[in-house]
Write the structure tokens for this entry.
Amino acid sequence: MPNRVTQLFKIKYPLIQAGMIWNSGWRLASAVSNAGGLGIIGAGSMYPEVLREHIIKCKAATDKPFGVNVPMLYPNIEEIIQIIIEEGVIIVFTSAGNPKTYTARLKENEITVVHVVSSVKFALKAQEAGVDAVVAEGFEAGGHNGRDETTTLTLIPMVKEQLDIPLIAAGGIATGQAMLAAMVLGADGVQVGSRFVASEESSAHINFKEMVVAAKEGDTELTLKELAPVRLLKNKFYQDVKELYKTAPTAEALNKLLGKRRSKRGMFEGDLVEGELEIGQIAGLIHEIKPAATIVQEIIEDFEKAKILVRSL
């Protein structure tokens, strides 16, 4: 299904796997790329040399394009950018920062640059910065999120109305039907995160994967907006946050409760009680842990079936 996204990344399907912290290592990225999508290594949870190791292993595991997601609020960002250049990564998704900071440098090294945004305003800033495409992410998404709580259903057409470069939809997309809906609204492709958390190749702990599969409607909520908005599964840590909010806490008090390494503790180490468990609202539609290639194929098959159904209406 050739379009602007498949042509930009030189991939078979306009389907991108999100570069999620503690979930998106080389195994997942290479599996998605081998299946025809675009796999992304999530650099946010990796020390620089660990990232280098994942890039090297991903290059050995696939001859297809893959990328690296770089959240610009994390430390060691300069070293991470240099490793990406040295290792010949050809696609970089930036997020959580100003796209002007590294776009020109990456493009000087013949790297395709995509920036993740949550609003029309920031989509236009990314386009002005010279990125090659934008991911517009609705607040249904898991993990860190926009403050405006704009849903994917409304965000995509609003961004499409203003944007000239390719648009990738994200947030609440885990099925072929949702993929088709996003593309009907104007997206050139989709980015899928939560569905790939519950994949065999995800580096998440099995405890977290099983909790995602068990999740129902209403089991996630966007919180900690005073720090950096994040959508979490409701566990003891989440309840502790809710109790603290009853006291009208300062940002300092929220930071103290959050502490350090809580997302690693939850998603990577499997502490379902005290860990931070980041997942999207779409978890309620995820019922089984499957190989990443199977997930890609099912989404594409359902996408094609949905197109036929729509034409028959």
Q: What stands out?
A: The radius of gyration is 18 Å. The longest strand covers residues 66-71. DSSP finds 14 helices and eleven strands in the chain.
